[in-house]
């Protein structure tokens, strides 16, 4: 069952949202503080619905700390802050989606469904059973894929990325963007294709989220000294091309 963490300090808003999500078949946990959210995120929910106006800390800090801690599930910010700058900052802090209050119930449901679908696609492989039934099962630990030792390697099955022997930690969407670009490395992938395949063909939000995600991906590849870079093809889309200077 898809798990949803609802972070909202106002009970009159949280309870109807919790009931709505539970009726849609989700396993919902509700917390009303930032500290509680960070603790609950340790259980790796599939989707986090995050309000920004929390009593103990700003929701943006919750989002940033969750991403810094390696959380790669879906994060949807739900807030009364509706200015474009607020949306861009939220996305830049690692949010996947941004829904301004007041919002329609159907739109909220559609956005959560989109995040839940991406979580299902990115779920890790099932644990492998032990030879001895008396011993606990252990999750398979895939080795880095065979490739030149200095290359950028994308393992779509394991959803892992390496530069040489070092693994690069990416969020769900960062990985999906890189994997799609890597599939046709050197060729241009249009913005429309990226939005349809990585976000959802029924995406409601701004395409600025794509630019923010690409920006974060570039920073991580650059920090890892990856021998490849994401290049913007103005008016068309992006391509992943090898960087001879770092090969």
UniProtKB/TrEMBL annotation:
InterPro entries: CheY-like_superfamily (IPR011006), OmpR/PhoB-type_DNA-bd (IPR001867), Sig_transdc_resp-reg_C-effctor (IPR016032), Sig_transdc_resp-reg_receiver (IPR001789), WalR-like (IPR039420), WH-like_DNA-bd_sf (IPR036388). Transmembrane segments: none annotated. This is DNA-binding response OmpR family regulator. Residues 3-116 form the Response regulatory domain. GO terms for cellular component: cytosol; protein-DNA complex. PROSITE patterns: OMPR_PHOB, RESPONSE_REGULATORY. Coiled coil: none annotated. One of its GO terms (molecular function) is phosphorelay response regulator activity. The modification 4-aspartylphosphate is found at residue 51.
């Amino acid at each position: 069952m898809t798990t949803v963490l609802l972070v909202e300090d106002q009970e009159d808003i949280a309870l109807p949202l919790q009931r709505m999500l539970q009726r849609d078949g989700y396993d919902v946990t509700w917390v009303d503080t930032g500290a509680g959210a960070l603790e609950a995120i340790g259980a790796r929910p599939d989707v986090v619905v995050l309000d920004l106006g929390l009593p103990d800390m700003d929701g943006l800090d919750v989002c940033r700390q969750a991403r810094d801690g390696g959380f790669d599930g879906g994060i949807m910010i739900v807030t009364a802050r509706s200015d474009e700058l607020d949306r861009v900052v939220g996305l830049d802090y690692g949010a996947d989606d941004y829904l301004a209050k007041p919002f329609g119930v159907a739109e909220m449901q559609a956005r959560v469904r989109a995040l839940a679908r991406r979580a299902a696609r990115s779920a890790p492989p099932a644990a492998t059973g032990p030879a001895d039934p008396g011993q606990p099962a252990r999750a398979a630990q895939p080795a880095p894929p065979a490739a030149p030792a200095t290359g950028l390697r994308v393992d779509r099955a394991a959803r892992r990325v390496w530069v040489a022997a070092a693994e690069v930690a990416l969020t769900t969407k960062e990985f999906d963007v890189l994997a799609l670009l890597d599939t046709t490395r050197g060729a241009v992938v249009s913005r429309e294709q990226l939005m349809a395949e990585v976000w959802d063909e029924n995406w409601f939000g701004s395409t600025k989220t794509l630019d923010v995600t690409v920006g974060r991906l570039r920073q991580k590849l650059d920090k890892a000294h990856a021998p490849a870079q994401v290049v913007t093809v103005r008016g068309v889309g992006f391509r992943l091309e090898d960087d001879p200077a770092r090969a």
